[in-house]
Amino acid sequence: METERRRRLTPAVANVRRAVRAAFAGHLVEGDLVLVGLSGGADSLALAAAAAFEAPRAALRAGAVVVDHGLQTGSADVAERAAAQARELGLDPVLVSRVRVGGDDGPEGAARAARHGAFERALAETGARGILLAHTLDDQAETVLLGLARGAGPTSLRGMAESSGSFLRPLLGIRRAETERFCADSGLVPWHDPHNADPGYARVRVRRRVLPVLESELGPGIAEALARTADQLREDSEALDAMVLEFIEEICEPAEAGIAVSVSALEANPAALRQRVIRYVVQSEFGVTLERAHTLAVARLVTDWHGQKALDLPGVRVVRNGGRIVFTAA
């Protein structure tokens, strides 16, 4: 088996293994258990195989968690096949979690929420230190392009981070074609999700129509450019978030049934910081994410004050009271 693996050390196999090795070195310590989020598709199957190869060499343990969303006929069989592949690769433990997808976030958002819930339960059950997710550079590019089309802010445009809490994404620098090549070179047969060919999903249209047109009309490298844009925006966004956290407590004070922020402090800061403070206060105190139009309306209570009435926004009421902007639950 070892001879076969060495014989198949093609560039795609080497690149994926190298990415996984770097993620291990940066986030895990000797003896840790890490789980691969495995669907059976080419991306996650390549990730699972690379993790199975690299984990013992880093004195780590690697297992897998397979989530059956129950959205397609035969999904239980697909999940069991993926679990069997994980065991054949030497991953242990291998968990299969069946979830119920529902909610108001649309089918993709609801499935993502259910999947992450299953991952959190797997972490608690096994004591694993992290979950490896198989998002690739192509996924990152699609995320940024969809965010641009929606007119989303930097939180969306900065895309996915290589690490966020217990979730690690080693393959954000790897193209999808490389994971497919990895599987072919390794003799692994991935599952092809029919949803990935369904043009009813915006992400599928971006993948199959929009990005190819951009590559054709503007030249190659569009996906890489979008991924670089996400990296740059994430760096800027994280720096601004850190600046907000440095002084947020100094400019806020308790108010009856809510919280108040100093008008003079908001006015003294540039728009980017002012609006981040507003969003941060509302999110942290009331669990509400303001849309840009709502954030700008609150900001006008600072920069364009002429006696406006209170703003009744989704989940929060905002009023200017003297030298304070007062936020209370709606």
UniProtKB/TrEMBL annotation:
Residues 34-208 form the tRNA(Ile)-lysidine/2-thiocytidine synthase N-terminal domain. The keyword Nucleotide-binding applies. The gene is tilS. Its EC number is 6.3.4.19. The keyword tRNA-binding does not apply. PANTHER family: TRNA(ILE)-LYSIDINE SYNTHASE-RELATED. This is tRNA(Ile)-lysidine synthase. GO terms for molecular function: tRNA(Ile)-lysidine synthase activity.
